Amino acid sequence: MKRGVPPTAEKARTGEFTPPGMTAQASSNSRAEVAVAWSTCMATSVPAGLIW
Fold it and tell me: How far apart are CA 43 and CA 20, in angstroms?
C-alpha cells in the first residue's frame, strides 16, 4: 500500500510556470521582511554591558 504525495513533476520545479514579475515581488517582500525583523531586534535588544 502506497501512502503520501507523489513526487513533484520535473517541470514544476524549474520555475517555468512562475508568472512574470513574481520574482521581483518576492525579492521586494523578502527585503521588507528582513527590515522589519532587523528593526524589531534592534528595538528589543539591550546594548552589551548595560546593567540595570
Answer: 37
Spatial distance between the Cα atoms of 28 and 42, rounded to a whole number of angstroms: 21
What is the three-class DSSP state of 13?
A: helix
CA atoms within 13 A on the CB side of 1: 1
Give, in degrees to the nearest 5, the angle at Cα 12 between 15 and 34.
Answer: 45
H or E segment and range at residue 31? helix 22-44
Question: 0.90 cut: is pTM over it?
Answer: no
Mean residue pLDDT of the chain comes to: 68
